[in-house]
Design a protein that fits this description.
The chain is built from 14 helices and seven strands. The chain is α+β, with helices and mostly antiparallel strands. The longest helix has 19 residues. The radius of gyration is 37 Å and the shape is elongated. The two termini are 66 Å apart.
């Protein structure tokens, strides 16, 4: 303690500051004492720091020191002269990446204060930590984005590891940002909206992510901030059809306090008027109600004509096998073919009412005084077309996603 006090006082006065720093580090190792001769001060007592005169090294050969202490001197000099990372630089890196203050300080220290290299360091650290996690992301959230003019809509699924992350505002905002990317990105008529999406730039800044950040990079950076592995799931895009068509969407919330247009079930629907020009607001209201119905009823096909032949054939075979099994082996052998065909036709109509959008009964909020039976979607659309002054409202296509 006596030697270090003298050394600290003399470090500012001596021209050999670096030597004093190295010697202080050497003395802390404690293997061997150094002989220092302070001028005019007793060796065992130091009255005050102000009264302590400058001390000097005794002229001794380096061989007096232990070899291990001599070998440690250059390393100690380097450690003593290291400068702390400026707080402003740490804050700048935190604002850019969203990482914690400790990780930002560590990254800057490792990369010598270089911001770009520190960002890469944080990315590598985030990827490495996520690689240790399970490959299957058990939780997910849907994000919906529809253009203000109804020209297009995007629906995207982002998967993570825990329900806790899906509740965070950062994750929900990220889902909405990716949905906006899907909405703005044109895809072929029969193409998959998720194909090649990882290599597409965000197109607009999202939080601390720049507009030119690729989707795959954004997943890594958001994953490093949230501490979980993020995976891009299914993605859908619908464009408004020509001739005054419009797109609408709906997402059923997953949490009561979640952000708007995020949830666990979602849909997009594209419609257009035939035989006239419909009011845009009225047409948008029809499309919005259809989007809600799709989420509630979960149809598979738009119309009977859109059902693939092989799908219908398989369904009828399944219906026939189930009906004969229900009759039993004795009665099944005596069933008339015409009777069996009528039974299958009835079951097929019931299947249409469950799986085909135009055949389903419209699911909509009704008043308590309204006891009328719900209309099929096709009849309801005809009534809405008449109210809007057009011949017909056609459903071009729809998309549905559920977690």
């Amino acid at each position: 303690f006596w030697f270090e006090s003298l050394a600290e006082q003399s470090a500012g006065q001596s021209s050999q500051n670096s030597q004093w720093a190295a010697m202080r580090s050497i003395c802390r190792l404690g293997n061997q004492f150094l002989h220092v001769q302070p001028a005019g001060v007793r060796r065992r007592h130091l009255t005050s720091a102000a009264a302590a005169p400058a001390c000097r090294f005794s002229r001794c050969s380096p061989s007096v020191l232990h070899p291990r202490l001599v070998a440690c001197a250059p390393q100690s000099r380097t450690l003593a002269s290291a400068e702390p990372v400026p707080a402003a630089l740490v804050k700048q890196l935190r604002d850019r990446t969203g990482a914690s203050m400790g990780k930002c300080r560590e990254a800057l220290g490792e990369e010598g204060g270089d911001l770009d290299k520190s960002v890469e360091w944080l990315r590598r650290r985030g990827v490495k930590s996520m690689e240790k996690r399970a490959t299957d992301a058990a939780e997910a959230l849907l994000g919906l984005s529809v253009a203000a003019d109804g020209s297009a809509g995007g629906l995207v699924e982002v998967r993570c590891e825990t329900d806790f992350v899906t509740r965070s505002d950062l994750f929900q905002a990220f889902c909405l940002g990716l949905a906006h990317v899907v909405e703005k990105r044109p895809v072929p008529a029969q193409g998959d909206a998720a194909e090649g999406l990882l290599d597409v730039p965000l197109g607009a800044s999202s939080g601390n992510l720049a507009a030119d950040t690729l989707v795959k990079t954004a997943l890594l950076e958001r994953g490093s901030v949230l501490g979980e592995k993020l995976v891009l799931g299914q993605a859908f895009r619908l464009a408004a059809p020509d001739g005054g068509g419009i797109v609408a969407g709906y997402v059923h919330p997953k949490f009561a306090d979640g952000q708007a247009n995020t949830g666990r079930m979602g849909s997009l629907v594209a419609i257009r008027p035939l035989g006239g020009t419909a009011d845009a607001e009225g047409l948008r209201a029809v499309a919005a109600l259809l989007a809600r119905h799709i989420v509630a009823a979960q149809p598979r096909y738009v119309s009977i004509a859109s059902v693939p032949v092989e799908v219908l054939q398989k369904e009828r075979e399944t219906m026939q096998a189930a009906h004969l099994e229900q009759l039993g082996s004795l009665k099944a052998g005596k069933v008339d073919d015409k009777v069996l065909a009528k039974v299958l036709d009835g079951k097929t109509q019931k299947w249409y009412s469950e799986s085909v959008l135009l055949c389903q009964e419209l699911i909509a909020a009704q008043s308590a005084a309204d006891d009328a039976k719900p209309l099929p979607v096709a009849e309801w659309l005809d009534a809405q077309a008449k109210a809007l002054g057009v011949e017909k409202i056609a459903i071009e296509d729809f998309r549905f996603a559920a977690l």
